[in-house]
Amino acid sequence: MNILLLRQGDDWLDATTVHITDHRADHLRQVLRSAVGESIRIGVVGGKRGDARVEASDATGVTLRVALNEPPPPRHRFDIVLALPRPKMLRRILRTVAEYGVCNLHLINSARVEKSFWQTPLLTANKVEEALMAGMERARDTVAPVVHQHRLFRPFVEDQLSTICAGRPCWLAEMGSALALSATPAVPAVVMIGPEGGFVPFELELAQAVIAQPVHLGTRVLSVDTALTAALALGWG
Q1: Which residues are in the Ribosomal RNA small subunit methyltransferase E methyltransferase domain (predicted)?
Q2: What dotted CATH number matches 4-70?
Q3: In whole angstroms, what is the distance from residue 155 CA to residue 166 CA?
């Protein structure tokens, strides 16, 4: 935990004082071993960051004096459209997009996405939030990516993709493409990444007919989570 995240209204005693009693207090006492008088990094979810001074700490909780004076870190220039990955990979992917500061993650269906993937408890709102918060805590961020779920491929591409792009380029990751993602203009864009095995020909053709332009991430076959990380790394800055 590189930043302690607070929620507006939760645990606040007044405008500058907060008292926490949950796992965050345990982390301060047992992991960071923060003593009275020490300063820690804090932030309000959806708001500013800053520092807090430990005013009191005992078995009942930790009291902090808060000063918020920094904006959240810059957002990533890519929004991501991603074929829903296997459940065992999903939590890691949610943490990754939070760590990189992605604004929007669109999880979509695809011919190679198994129907059972959509039944995972990891797609429930509280589990998604839990994974995003873990990434935010690591990256010292206070703004969570917005996660959208689209269970029908064709309606998503035909009816929503152009609107989502809103005039931005839409780069479709596809091995063997002539253009490298690293060679595209450094502007805000949407990046589409398929499932293990890639999008099927119909999906590739439809996305390109609507708006997408194929790009490659290199010459090696990558797993979905590695491809996502590579794309985000190429688009950073």
Answers
A1: 77-234
A2: 2.40.240.20
A3: 17
What's the CA gap between 160 and 54, in Å, rounded? Answer: 48
Q: Enumerate residue ranges in the chain where pLDDT < 50.
A: none
Instruction: Write b or e for each residue in 130-156: b if 16 or more Cβ atoms lie within 10 A of its Cβ, otherwise e.
Output: ebbbbbbbebbbbbbbebeebeebeeb
- In the chain, domain spans: 4-70, 78-234
Does the reported pTM lie above 0.90? yes
**Domain 78-234: CATH class, spelled out:** alpha beta
- Nearest CA to 94 among 124, 129, 70? 129
- Count how many residues are written for the chain: 237
Identical fold between 4-70 and 78-234: no
What confidence tens digit (pLDDT) does each residue in 170-214 have? 999 999 999 999 999 999 999 999 999 999 999 999 999 999 999
Q: Please, is 119 exposed, middle or buried when counting C-beta atoms within 10 Å of its C-beta (0-12, 13-18, 19+)?
A: exposed
Concatenating the DSSP letter of every residue in 8-75 gives TTSSBSSSSEEEE-SHHHHIIIIIS-PPTT-EEEEEETTS-EEEEEEEEEETTEEEEEEEEEEPPPPP
Helix (H, G, I), strand (E, B) or coil at 162: helix
